[in-house]
Amino acid sequence: MTTYLFAGGGTAGHVNPLLATADRLREREPDAEILVLGTAEGLEARLVPERGYELLTIPRLPFPRRPNRAAIEFPSKWRSSVALVRGILHDRHVDVVVGFGGYASAPAYRAAQLEKLPLVLHEQNAKPGIANRFGARLTHFVGVTFASTSLAHGAVVGLPLRREIEQLELAPARAEGRALFDLDHRIPTLLVTGGSTGAKRINDSVSTSVAALLGSGWQVLHITGSRSPVVDPGMAGYHLFEYCDRMDLAFAVAELAVSRAGAGTLAELAALGIPAVLVPYTAGNGEQAYNARDAVHAGAAIVVTDESFTPEYVQTRLPTLLRDRARIADMAARMASIGVRDGADKMVDLVIAARDSRVTTLS
Asked: Hey, where are the domains in the chain?
């Protein structure tokens, strides 16, 4: 029996591909033991046990970005974290370490190197994080989501997707989605979403411009998220929801999407061939703007900066695009051409190759 330690977490962007890969590996190797290393504060603390995996935690240790007390204390805390993970590797007889970025990953990468264990990692964003930039130097087995990702030893595997997207059959899902959201099958649907928590800029600009969008001959499915509520103007053809637990069906009904450019959202749009107007979130290290590049270069998406996505843009520029059905159809074909539905399988292939290889970590 092989024991795998999956390391990563903090955000859904790290946890979801981790779980998708773990699920696929469990299908292929039912007798394998799969452990997950994370922190008590991250989203993994809830999602991992819910999925039926054992969660092992280590202290959250951010990498210091400026000279301060945390920077002075970092080396000793780093050594303690690595030692803690090495103890887990010993005690649980771990055979392979698989990392997905986040606070728990970097100590796991170093521990795998010291224990001379096979190491595999996946980078979801086009602009890699610190942990994966470090880990990629230690192994040849590196999977990336985007072709434009610059990471040592990176090979494009796509993003491991949740099963409901990976196996979605568009025709029946579209019919089910239209019934669920009370949509008119004769009218094309514009999906507007900023993710589960929402995007205030997108919500505000769209909600004040509903008439212009409806006047373009489209209906609008607007999922606002929880943090920036929108008042429903009560116009026919405008369908407002704060939360949607069937995003697979929301994607299925969409001929065009307006969304942020998170790696998960982009991977799902591409897998389903949905063209998009992308409004990258500006926080963090600007990774969403980098994520959008492959789709833009393929002619599958348009990028509008957050500050440019104004009511004026939605009332003038967006309707021009909506009326150009031939362009949208071409964008859809181009989006489908860069989509990857089997990212979970490709990532598991990489894990198995590492397990079976005599090459472990790089010195």
From this structure: 3-161+342-356, 164-338
SS3 assignment for 153-203: CEEECCCCCCHHHHCCCHHHHHHHHHHHHCCCCCCCEEEEECCCCCCHHHH
Each residue of 286-314: pLDDT tens digit?
Answer: 899 999 999 999 999 999 999 999 999 99
Structure token digits, residue 352? 């198995």
| Mean pLDDT for the stretch of residues 192-213 | 89
Q: Which token pair is 227?
A: 């943090």
Domain 164-338 belongs to what architecture?
3-Layer(aba) Sandwich (3.40)
Closest to 105 in 3D by CA, of 130, 87, 75: 130
| CA-CA-CA-CA torsion sign (178, 181, 187, 192) | negative
Range list of H helices, the chain: 12-28, 44-50, 69-91, 105-115, 130-135, 163-166, 170-181, 200-207, 210-214, 247-253, 263-272, 287-291, 293-297, 311-323, 325-338, 343-356
Please tell me whether residue 80 adopts helix, strand or coil conformation.
Answer: helix
CATH number, domain 3-161+342-356, options 3.40.50.2000, 3.40.390.10, 3.40.190.150, 3.30.1020.10: 3.40.50.2000
Compute how many other C-beta atoms are within 10 angstroms of the C-beta atom of residue 71: 12
Strands 219-223 and 141-144, how do they pair?
Answer: unpaired
The answer to whether residues 38 and 57 touch, using CB atoms and an 8 Å cutoff, is: yes
CA atoms within 13 A on the CB side of 118: 20
Q: Does this model's pTM top 0.85? A: yes
| Residues pairing with 203 in the sheet | none
Which residues touch 176 (CB under 8 Å, ≥6 apart)?
A: 249, 252
**What are the structure tokens assigned to 296, written together?**
């833009």
